[in-house]
Amino acid sequence: xxxxxxxxxxxxxxxxxxxxxxxxxxxxxxxxxxxxxxxxxxxxxxxxxxxxxxxxxxxxxxxxxxxxxxxxxxxxxxxxxxxxxxxxxxxx
Length: 92
Description:
- With 92 residues, this protein is mostly helical.
- It has one domain.
- 77% of the residues lie in helices and 0% in strands.
- Helix 3 runs antiparallel to helix 4 (72-87).
- The longest helix is centred in the middle third of the chain and has 25 residues, at 43-67.
- The termini are far apart.
């Protein structure tokens, strides 16, 4: 009984430490547009950055769809939504 209490205390301590470490990790820019805005990009530099970011997102989304064994319209729809989410809404 006493060893269970010690074990439970240790588990709770590990969970507490891991959640506080995660909470302190800064979040990366959530979308390509947000990252471009954060970097204060404009003009050709912004367009180049967004084009590369969209290409990278497309590759990742295609790989994820293939891993999930999606095909046809389901794959196309999933990839389209995934890329749209990764790129984000255009900033004004």
